[in-house]
Design goal:
Blueprint (H helix, E strand, L loop, with lengths): L8 H31 L14 H28 L2 H33 L7 H22 L3 H28 L20 H44 L1
Helix pairs in contact: 1-6, 2-3, 2-5, 2-6, 3-4, 3-6, 4-5
Length: about 240
């Protein structure tokens, strides 16, 4: 069995239909239980109750970056192998990624105001995240503005390549520059830098929930895009007849 079999729309629709109920159930279970568990955790000795924003901010920020990288992979598959499902998956993922980026920016501002004394700072990571959000909006607008779907997939694929620079900067900016207010990585394997277990485990659960939420939305939206393309093809065939 080859992975490229799932680039066939019929195979994708059948497989995604089987996966979708489990993804939705897992997303609801992990997200709700993780958020409830997280917001019941004790206050941090430095940050007080504001630390609980981490259970929304970190999963949203991680998904914002990784969704763009997923779009990059699927766009490259389209550019190299011309599989329509991969292009439609990238298109379907973009609005979800834009919302995740917006959530990360808003929750970051809410978290930053009591910690830094300001809602916004032109910090390297914050700035690259804002640019990433603008790339998401540009990607969505480009898909909407180009009438031919194959041409739109080509152009947005190139845009994905450029935007990936800012996706990586958003992830590693604090490692490139020492200046800036943003803290280092929230999750670390380095000794002495690990988050306390009382926060780490509910955070893992919300991260799993956000991933499954994205997977559910991706499958639903990709299935919708496939149906829309089928409908357009049938209408075009009917008009020609």
């Amino acid at each position: 069995m080859s992975i490229w079999e799932y680039a066939n729309p019929v195979k994708f629709m059948r497989t995604s239909g089987a996966i979708l109920p489990y993804a939705v159930a897992g997303a609801a279970l992990c997200t709700v239980s993780g958020l409830v568990w997280g917001f019941l955790t004790p206050q941090d000795y430095k940050q007080g109750a504001t630390v609980k924003i981490i259970f929304l901010h970190v999963p949203a920020a991680l998904m914002a970056i990784n969704i763009w990288l997923m779009m990059l992979v699927t766009s490259l598959i389209w550019l190299v192998r011309r599989h329509h499902v991969s292009a439609l998956a990238a298109k379907a993922a973009a609005p979800v990624g834009a919302v995740m980026t917006l959530i990360a920016l808003i929750t970051g501002a809410i978290w930053g105001q009591p910690m830094w004394g300001t809602w916004w700072e032109w910090d390297p990571r914050l700035t690259s995240f804002l640019i990433l959000f603008l790339f998401y909006l540009g990607y969505i607008a480009l898909w909407a503005s180009v009438e031919n779907p194959d041409s739109a997939a080509d152009l947005t694929g190139v845009l994905c390549l450029v935007g990936s620079v800012f996706a990586l900067l958003s992830r590693y900016a604090v490692n490139f520059w020492n200046q800036g207010l943003h803290q280092g990585a929230s999750l670390s394997l380095a000794p002495g830098e690990r988050m306390a277990a009382v926060y780490r485990y509910p955070l893992y659960l919300t991260m799993a929930g956000f991933f499954l939420l994205f997977l559910s939305l991706l499958l639903v939206r990709t299935r919708t895009e496939i149906r829309r393309r089928r409908l357009a093809a049938l209408l075009a065939r009917e008009n020609r007849a």
